[in-house]
């Protein structure tokens, strides 16, 4: 297939779009859109060099917008709305600060602070990093 034909670029854009469905990062969506811009410009009769430059510019702008979107979204304080924060968990295994906890009937990957939280003890969810829960010791208050 000739790389100067619109169908070549549109086919690669379709492959990138399908790959995006499996990754879910949105970066391949931007790449797919940039490739589609090149294909569309070539289909409209643009010369290859201006089409490639415009597609590259579209990719750079798209990546900048995506980065801004992700930064704004993470700064929104999603942890405040997390209903799992403060919930108790049971420590199942701890291997140097990383391990597993039992929470809501399932085992979850966990990161412990302090790192020496013993298996069999209780902890509390203090945050999360993706699907990894950040666990602190269960508060020890006075017993009645």
Automatic annotation (TrEMBL):
Magnesium is among the record's keywords: no
Domain NfeD-like C-terminal: from-to ranges: 84-137
Record key words, sorted: Membrane, Transmembrane, Transmembrane helix
InterPro entries given in the database record: NA-bd_OB-fold, NfeD-like_C
The keyword Transmembrane helix appears for this protein: yes
Ranges that cross the membrane: 46-66
Protein name: NfeD-like C-terminal domain-containing protein
Organism, scientific name: Crenobacter cavernae
